[in-house]
Amino acid sequence: xxxxxxxxxxxxxxxxxxxxxxxxxxxxxxxxxxxxxxxxxxxxxxxxxxxxxxxxxxxxxxxxxxxxxxxxxxxxxxxxxxxxxxxxxxxxxxxxxxxxxxxxxxxxxxxxxxxxxxxxxxxxxxxxxxxxxxxxxxxxxxxxxxxxxxxxxxxxxxxxxxxxxxxxxxxxxxxxxxxxxxxxxxxxxxxxxxxxxxxxxxxxxxxxxxxxxxxxxxxxxxxxxxxxxxxxxxxxxxxxxxxxxxxxxxxxxxxxxxxxxxxxxxxxxxxxxxxxxxxxxxxxxxxxxxxxxxxxxxxxxxxxxxxxxxxxxxxxx
Length: 317
Ligand code: FAD
Hints:
Blueprint: H1 3-9, E1 14-19, H2 28-41, E2 46-49, E3 54-60, E4 66-72, H3 77-88, E5 91-97, H4 103-116, E6 120-124, H5 145-156, E7 173-178, H6 189-201, E8 206-211, H7 215-227, E9 234-238, H8 246-254, H9 260-268, H10 273-290, E10 295-301, H11 305-315
């Protein structure tokens, strides 16, 4: 089923998850071990799987020469999505990124997903990881997520990149990313919300937000989106602070603010960071649910336990 249909058909807020594929060479069984618990305890309607751009790095060869290499650290998004559908019968949502892909490669990936019976995609730009090969690609690259959304919408109308007569239309539901604290490259939130509106006008069915720790940012963001005519569901994305290091790493990698109050609580009692993070997230979820959010999307990366603790805490309230 399409993600948007899950939201439209549900009378309850939906709990969903986002996972990352294992590192190259890692065991998919480890992902299944986590997902077995998630599925048993929550049975989410859909599970997102992130996509990872290839990264450039320099390797020193035995003779001392340096070689520039490019490789994807976490390959296998589409395969993992197929495995999730097969193993759990739960709708997987692969992320597709613009970064490092030509439009032709994106079209190939979408054809593959269509054959697999996967009809949901989160269309994302990705970030520059230094892997872009400096070929003259003559405009065959999607620069922004909105360009990828347009490409998917075109395929849904049977318009592939080449003029193919009687091409089979695809049937994808498309999600996009939104940023309550604005995207780090955007000059201001108003400007960023207008760019989000472009993605929705291009055919995005729903928005998932970047993680945030202050609900006020989400509520103001949603208000601004509505004022700008964005009327699709805006799903709050949450991560649970569970290590002291998160106080530094989350703002660094995701360009978000951690409220002073939360920082002060952890600073005062670092040994209890897991409990503090759980309690904070519980209160965040409760307030979001009380205010009628369509669902909550948990970023669990490799470890579902913090999110499962919060969900069981919510049930106990
Ligand atoms: P866009 O919507 O393209 O926006 C990027 C920036 O460009 C914004 O500042 C926007 O305001 C600006 N912009 C948009 N259109 C234009 C235009 N026409 N002209 C000028 N400026 C413009 N990264 C991964 O690598 N893999 C993942 O799987 C992944 N999943 C994610 C899931 C979610 C829910 C979120 C919130 C983020 C995810 N990311 C992922 C991170 C994402 O790749 C980065 O945040 C990236 O920097 C922006 O992606 P986007 O799709 O929001 O980009």
